[in-house]
Amino acid sequence: MSKIKLTGSNSGYVEIDSAADAGNLTLTLPTSGVRLLSNTDNVFSGITTTGELDINGKIDVSTDVVIARNLSVGGITTHTGTTTLSDDVTFTGASYNVLWDKSDNQLEFADNAKASFGGSLQIYRDGTNTRIQNSTNTLRIIGDSIKLNNGNVSKNFLVAENDAVQLMYNNSTKFVTTNTGTVTTGICTATSFSGSGEGLTRTSQYAYRNRFHNGGMTIAQRIGNTETTLTHNNWTQILDRWKVYENTDAVITATRVHNTYPTAGTVPSSYSATRLKVTTADTSLSSSQQVQFSQIIEGHDWQDLRWGTSAAKSVTVSFSILATGSSASNVTGTYCLQCSDAGTYSRAYIREYTIDAINVWKRVSLTFPGDTGGNWNSNSFSGTNEGCRFSWFLAGDTNQFGSADTWSSYKTSTSNQKNFLSHVNNMIFITDVQVEEGTVATPYETKPHSTELQLCQRYYQDIPANTAVYVPQAGSYARINVLFPTTMRATPSITLTPSWDGGGATIYGCMFYKSGNNTMPRMQCSSEF
Length: 529
Prior knowledge:
Elements: E1 26-28, E2 35-37, E3 53-55, E4 71-73, E5 89-91, E6 98-101, E7 106-109, E8 115-117, E9 121-125, E10 130-134, E11 145-149, E12 156-161, E13 164-169, E14 172-177, E15 182-184, E16 228-229, E17 234-237, E18 243-246, E19 251-258, E20 272-280, E21 291-298, E22 315-324, H1 328-331, E23 333-341, E24 348-355, E25 362-368, E26 386-395, E27 427-437, H2 449-457, E28 460-463, E29 466-471, E30 473-474, E31 477-483, E32 493-497, E33 502-505, E34 509-515, E35 518-520, E36 522-526
Parallel strand pairs: 3-4
Antiparallel strand pairs: 1-2, 5-6, 6-7, 8-9, 9-10, 11-12, 12-13, 13-14, 14-15, 16-19, 17-18, 18-21, 19-20, 20-27, 21-26, 22-25, 22-27, 23-24, 23-26, 28-36, 29-35, 30-31, 31-34, 32-36, 33-34
């Protein structure tokens, strides 16, 4: 016996209807279960409910299934006992969805849709970054070999295998854990060191790694703190080991300042700085006009870098610089640092850097690859002769513009070089200048003042006049013999004030004579390049 039963007290009704000629709607009652058929004896393709749909038996799905609310199914199986969804399936969340994409063969989580494991581990993308987030206990990544790679798996960043961990840079291993500790390949830079250091193995480059002398601008035997106008169309020796070439229509002064500069930005460690100031502007430079602030490094201090050979080593220059003027546009922009062979000036490498604000100290670091070409190993570049020159350009000559970041024949700067001479009272401060082997800039190395003075005295010594030192006449002449406190680079040229009649010098000392009785004159002894 079969029944159709309508219950309820409302005035609504149940209607089974069909459009004209649309065929039959057949409800068959098998021995168990219910089948709802169309005229062609196929199960209807869609069932929509506004509430919950509870199915306690099997469900056979041959097309998309979209579940907008709750679906409670006692057993969703095919005739063989496996659920098959034959197309894309979307799981719609309150805010974020998950899609099984048939064509991509993958389960796709929208941004912020989370895969959650045990309530504490979540994996999801937050719209910008992908997160693996564990809120309790320990997140373990387990494997005999674990690697962290770049996007196309061409480079390793981290490798953990065979009881060791390796950290790489550009596929080159830099840090490895071992059974006795760690091994670092390359320069290890630290802001501080704790411990006695008794177990450290030191090298000859540990101390005095800076090949510049007077990089902290502490020694100024010639000018002291006096503001000095640069000589036009020539080199002017200013602070010890530093000189400036200027051939423009501007007027520039140089002086040493002691902590009397702005203190914004990365303030240098040195108390002193060189200041270059424009007192007469030059707004239109001709093709050959330039200004460069330079130091030449002696061959003895450059030979071990093996420039001019296939074993040439890279060096890194770092320095602190600050610019100021009546407006930022007067001084901000691109500047050039040039490296050249100081013997024949046939090779050059130019690096650009930017001054992007006024009254703010900036720490700049620029690496120069070792030059495998050129003639660096000839006698002109060895021993006590010129080795290498570094020049900071404040204005560049257009007839010697070159390209940045390449070794070439001698060039001064690039076409991007800023004209620092464009306005009166433009000023640049520079200090903490360092050049060292390698591709990493270490903190500025402060040498003892006495050591820095001795290094500078190899190139220049200023022995002041002393009227209290009486030089008596012996025969027709008074004679002075001076043993230099530091052996000089080469036989110096010596200027006496007041002048004496004659004399001579070696790298170790000098002797001069003058008719009559005299007092000690000022002696300026120079073996600069």
